[in-house]
Design a protein that fits this description.
By secondary structure, chain A is an alpha/beta fold. Chain A has 13 helices and 25 strands. In chain A, strands 1, 2, 4, 5, 6, 7 and 20 form a seven-stranded mixed β-sheet that branches. In chain A, strands 9-16-10-11-12 form a five-stranded parallel β-sheet.
Chain lengths: ~450, ~450
């Protein structure tokens, strides 16, 4: 009997598996597709790999830095090959992390569960474990729109990443993180991009000043935004969209990318007796309502980010080992949007701070950083720091500009450690870096 | 009578000036050249600006990311123009920070000092202040080598940054930070580079594993290293160097770059009664032996880095205002070398940890980070975290790989906050970023 059976070999599954095995526990991991899950195989990693190539393509064409080049071209096939190579390499790394776990490739089903035992069937065999960790992830959501099903012109993110060739134009349904990252990729490679978004702005949960700056920049680059518009029908490669005043328009593009969110993979888990409300309900220690069943990652429908899944997996592992751990509710979660420029945020937004009252908001342009100016010719950016007036404790940091993604960890640490602005000012940031901007902002 | 007279308008001078003026104090700043000091005008900023162009030149030639370009060329004049434009822009920013200070362009001399008054002469006028802040910076050191003086083939860093045209080959004397950054710049632009270093390795204070990795990479790229060699004579553009066994060789290059360190600018301060030992001696609150005289930055000969000068300036300002401040000795100082890949380090080195004993050293390749792999095709890197065995408190982090410079602030914060590895593990790092590597390393 295994100590734990893990359903799903994504970031959550392999993190928990490796951690528990390291602690001497016997672990069995079931993965129906490839180790690494959505993130590694059809999510973060392939997107970032292609985005980096696209960025290099833009940079090579730019003469802003005193460099000239002729006939700059990208080779989509080579970009894809590189992406696949990197996925394989990182997947091998994940496999290595699971050296001391039993890994089964196949679809697992729970056939029996009592409070001290779980029996799982996979590929015609049965496996028994004391505990069960569910981290089956999520799938692209397909909304019930006329003409969407079996339409070869409609891609989800997975199909877009594996496209044999680029379309000349693409309409992206959904201006959230995934939609905007693909908008960046396609626009940088010369594809004509339109974005249809139901909400009044793209990236609804991000600081409004930042999303407006991004939108303006992308509009200048030729991306068309149809905000407060919903898609009511698709006919071959033509969308019928309706705005909030009830006016309909049509929109034609070679391909249509559907990025309206993801839904937890709950298939086969319905009869287990789990409390489910959109996702599997868990407490701060990743325990479900069933004593020996834990759930982490996208399947809990909390925040669908790989680093959340990883953190939850670490917490679940500690829970199973009866070791002390930070409760998930106390974890400060950063998020990054890999547009160009990048957006990185953590903590409360200006909008929330204003609603709540009692906060001070400081904001400066990124051009206050010498390195930003040196490496971002003609670009705009912003750094915003929010702290509580009474305690002076930092509560939110919002960055727009490259390379915000690599800097937001510093802000995350400051917030997690409940640092005051005085404490932050005592930190020596290296010069010249963009990271200095956080201190400069105060 | 001014509250304070500041000699030197570099990072230290303008930081202290702006801070004191913000606190309602009357401030006069003397700058004999340009506001912004060495860092902005002939140091960090121009170097990083040119280095970024050089990096773009390399990237545009590379086909590693699926991008092709023909006839890739750099335009040194345009690179220089951009550099000058950025310096002007940032200098305007410094000027604006000093809006509420009196700024005098000219060489200042102290003509009288008592414990409650300092009289300064500049451009034929006299100015009186209660306190004096000395931040006159440093200058390139010219060692007494035969044939070095008045030799038009010998550049210092300032001359190299302002070169009208690039040489075909350059010999760099001194493999420290400045030498290696110029080696990077010139080599990336196709100049044949040799580095002569007296010590057994380049970048003597940096983690040895990292400097070895850099050296190997640069050797493969064609840079010649003459380690444990000293220059004994220069004849026009030929160096005579002697190794530690006494064997001499000659070495010819179009230009010779001298980067063997910098010395505090003490000129005109000799008779003030200051305690001087190489630099002006100061305590942890930047006080000299004279009650109303403070000194900060390169002139103190502590650590010649702009961010050290800035931190010291903040401490000096608080000292003058009798406000509580962190003592300089308690500040954790990161440092960055803008080679390609970058090096960034903070805290104790592996070598020191091994000498002292009681430390645990963890190290992993940068390729454990998915983003690093996605954006650094074919590159190698390392992340090393050092913590005290007994307390589990993090004491050192050493990074090799892009973009370490932007990540080291996170490590600096962790060390400054005396975080344990358990506390660091609780921080959620965004995925996929290179910054995750610090947590992954544990």
């Amino acid at each position: 009997m295994y100590f734990v059976a893990i359903m799903g070999g994504g970031p959550a599954g392999y993190t928990a598996g490796a951690e528990l095995a390291k602690n001497g526990k016997s672990v069995i991991v079931f993965e129906k597709e490839e180790l690494g899950g959505t993130c590694l195989n059809v999510g973060c990693i392939p997107t970032k790999t292609l985005l980096y190539s696209a960025k290099q393509f833009c940079n090579a064409q730019s003469e802003k830095y005193g460099i000239k080049a002729e006939n700059v071209a990208f080779d989509w096939d080579k970009m894809q090959q590189r992406k696949d190579k990197i996925i394989r390499k990182l997947r091998a790394g994940v496999k290595q992390q699971l050296t001391n776990c039993m890994v089964i490739k196949g679809e697992a089903t729970v056939v029996e569960r009592t409070d001290d035992k779980v029996v799982i069937a996979c590929n015609g065999e049965q496996y028994t474990a004391e505990k069960l960790l569910i981290c089956t992830g999520s799938s692209n959501f397909v909304p019930p729109i006329d003409g969407i099903e079996n339409n070869p012109n409609v891609w989800d993110s997975t199909a877009a990443l594996q496209a044999k060739e680029l379309p000349q134009s693409i309409a992206i349904i959904g201006g959230g993180v995934i939609g905007m990252e693909f908008a960046t990729l396609f626009a940088e490679l010369g594809v004509e991009v339109s974005v249809v978004e139901f909400m009044p702005n793209i990236l609804p949960n991000i600081d409004e000043q930042i999303t407006n700056l991004l939108k303006e920049k992308y509009q200048k680059q030729g991306i068309h935004f149809y905000l407060q518009n919903k898609v009511i029908a698709i006919n071959e490669n033509t969308l019928t969209i309706e705005n909030n005043e009830g006016t309909t328009t049509t929109l034609t593009a070679d391909k249509i990318l559907l990025s309206v969110g993801r839904r937890p993979n709950l298939n086969g888990l319905e009869n287990l007796g789990l409390k489910i409300n959109k996702g599997i309900e868990v407490d701060d220690f990743m325990r479900t309502n069933l004593p020996n069943v834990y759930a982490v990652g996208d399947v809990t429908n909390k925040i669908m980010l790989a680093h959340v899944a990883t953190q939850q997996a670490e917490i679940a592992a500690k829970s199973m080992l009866n070791e002390p751990t930070i409760p998930f509710g106390e974890c400060v979660i950063p998020s990054v949007v890999y547009t160009n420029p990048e957006i990185a945020t953590v903590g409360i937004t200006e909008q929330t701070a204003n609603q709540l009252g009692g906060y001070i908001i400081k904001s400066i342009p990124m051009s206050f950083s010498g390195r930003f100016v040196a490496e971002n010719e003609g670009e705009n950016g912003v750094c915003k720091v929010i702290f509580e007036e009474k305690t002076q404790i930092i509560k939110g940091v919002h960055l727009f500009g490259n390379v915000s993604s690599e800097i937001i960890a510093t802000a995350t640490m400051a917030i997690q450690q409940k640092m005051t602005i005085e404490q932050l000012k005592q930190i020596v940031f290296p010069h010249p870096t963009v990271s200095e901007i956080i201190k400069e902002c105060l």
